[in-house]
Amino acid sequence: MTDEKGGDDKVLCVPAGDPRQENLRELEDIPEFYRLEIHHFFSVYKALEPGKGVRDTAWADRTAAEAEVKASRRRLQATQEPGNG
Q1: Alpha carbon 55 to chain centroid distance?
Q2: Alpha-carbon distances of 61 from 18, 29, 49, rounded to whole Å
Q3: Is position 8 annotated as part of the catalytic site?
Q4: CB burial of residue 58 (10 Å; 0-12, 13-18, 19+)
Q5: What pTM did the predictor assign?
Q6: Rg (Cα) of the chain, in Å, rounded?
Q7: Kindly report the CA angle at 30 between 28 and 34, in degrees rounded to 5?
């Protein structure tokens, strides 16, 4: 999604080791109603703040989510290296 500060990816996760959620592996495994509910939330959650809003909300697949998590970890590690802050 994109907001007034630029791109801001979100990652939908389920707890590891929870036998009640073992069947949730891919985006399509999440019931459509819950996907619609989550999408709606992220589409409107800033609507009450003057001058703020969200656009370009869309789902991506598991591969894209895993790639974003890896990229986020690399960015964090880069900020924690000596001389970077």
Answers
A1: 14
A2: 21, 11, 30
A3: yes
A4: exposed
A5: 0.73
A6: 16
A7: 125
Q: What pLDDT shows up at residue 55?
A: 83
Catalytic residue among 8, 9, 29, 61: 8
Closest to 11 (Cα-Cα) out of 71, 55, 60 = 60
> Is a pLDDT exceeding 70 seen at residue 76?
yes
Contacts of 52 (CB under 8 A, 6+ apart): 3, 4, 46
Residue 50 neighbours by CB distance under 10 Å: 5
pLDDT tens, position by position, 4-58: 888 888 899 988 899 999 999 999 999 999 999 998 998 888 888 888 888 878 8
pLDDT of residue 85: 59
